Amino acid sequence: MRDPRLPAAFLQPGTSSFSDFLADQAPDLLPGRRAVPQGHAGGQAGDLAPHGTTIVAATFGGGVVMAGDRRATMGNIIAQRDIEKVFPADEFSAVGIAGSAGIAVEMVRLFQTELEHYEKIEGTTLSMDGKANRLAALIRGNLGMAMQGLAVVPLFAGYDLASDSGRIFSYDVTGGRYEETAFHSVGSGSLFARGSLKKLYRADLDESGCVTAVVQALYDAADDDSATGGPDLTRRIFPVVQVITADGGRRLADADVAAVADQVIAGRMARPDGPVAPLVEGGQA
What are the CA-CA distances from residue 127 to residues 93, 131, 133, 163, 207 (Å)? Predict the structure, then answer.
């Protein structure tokens, strides 16, 4: 007998996609279906809502590391100093957000539910490519908001059990999906972070070295981008760092990230521009 407390749609067999079910039953609850004022928010969007900034990710032999700074801005104002922009998507993946913070957090929560719903309906987890495609569909659904100036551009990374390796995916505002090699960054400080990783990244990095490299990259981003927050020594606010391996994902303890940041800052006291990379492969630093 049907439970009278639940609509019939909740008890009928259907798609394994929670977002598709939501689009059919309550489309107004989707982040991209909200009513927005007519016109284009354009350059005013940064003044109207907090924006998250820089996310970096890099692979190493045993998995992948994702990290994000803690600053959110509204135009020229620091809206929040300790926002979290890196979230576990499921046991073996993580997503970092850049863009309109409120919409991005809603999208992350919907993505987490999407992956959990699929696993419960199908009895198995989505493949890494399947997860990346589902996130692309959610971003595509936010295109109307993006055209109003409220864009969300996440970075997705995880450990692929099939290929036994860490993988990274980037996106554009239309939902275009692109797999990245070795490392990538998104957000306002991404140009500086990627430039830093080009010099610091090595294929033979272990987990500790990879964590240090992404923290160095975030420091370089903060050094040149006012919207990216560097380590806050007085408030002891440091980047959120997520490590994902064959054993699953875990967030590094604040004390561990603080220890890495303290080492990075100590090195910058002697050389503000950071570590020196060799001029040629195999050359002296």
Answer: 11, 6, 10, 10, 24
Domain ranges of the chain: 48-270
pLDDT tens, residue order, the chain (285 aa): 455 665 665 556 666 666 666 566 666 666 655 555 555 444 444 456 677 789 999 999 999 999 999 999 888 888 889 999 999 999 999 999 988 888 888 889 999 999 998 888 888 889 999 999 999 998 988 787 777 777 888 999 999 999 999 999 999 989 899 999 999 999 999 999 999 999 999 999 999 999 999 999 999 999 999 999 999 999 999 999 999 999 999 999 999 999 999 999 999 999 999 998 888 876 555
What is the rounded distance in angstroms from the CA atom of residue 61 to the CA atom of residue 83?
Answer: 30
Total residues belonging to the chain: 285
CATH topology of domain 48-270: Glutamine Phosphoribosylpyrophosphate, subunit 1, domain 1 (3.60.20)
Query: Which residues are catalytically annotated?
Result: 53
